[in-house]
Write a structure and sequence with these properties.
Length: 149
């Protein structure tokens, strides 16, 4: 395993998480040559504006919070943002939505990424089962990921 990938995983573990945040997972994918959308992590609206201009519109803005796993379910994602004004509004809307859903949620920042063309979303995961050992999960992702259990 790459030293950088191990650092990301150890950091999540030390944070008490058994999952990676989106930017962490995308960073690991990139380390192994798996393409992802162009993205940057920002701490506030000013940084979001700067990054959106650097990446180029349209962009997507998503909440980064270890307390919010399914971002779309709680209004933590705004897509197809095409201007500076929309960036400011999106960050405010996302923050308000998150705090309505979970007033104690720790907001670690925002993920600003280039808007991708519509396609099929996938989910990848792994588990170490005591009886079967390591298993990888791969399937249909997006907002319907937990519809079928």
């Amino acid at each position: 395993m790459s030293e950088n990938a191990l650092k990301i995983i150890k950091s999540a573990y030390e944070d008490g998480r058994n999952f990676l945040l989106e930017h962490e997972a995308k960073s690991i994918c990139r380390l192994y040559g798996i393409p992802t959308t162009l993205f940057r992590v920002v701490r506030n609206v000013d940084e979001a504006l700067q990054v959106a201009k650097e990446i180029g519109y349209p962009v997507v803005i998503k909440i980064i919070s270890r307390d919010i796993i399914h971002k779309s379910d709680v209004g933590g994602v705004v897509v197809n943002i095409g201007s500076d004004e929309e960036v400011v509004n999106a960050c405010e809307i996302i923050k308000n939505n998150i705090l309505k859903h979970n007033p104690n949620a720790r907001i670690d920042g925002f993920l600003v990424e280039k808007m991708a063309q519509p396609t099929t979303e996938v989910i990848v995961g792994m588990i170490k089962d005591s009886q079967f050992g390591p298993a990888i999960m791969f399937g249909l992702g997006g907002i319907f990921v937990e519809v079928l259990k």
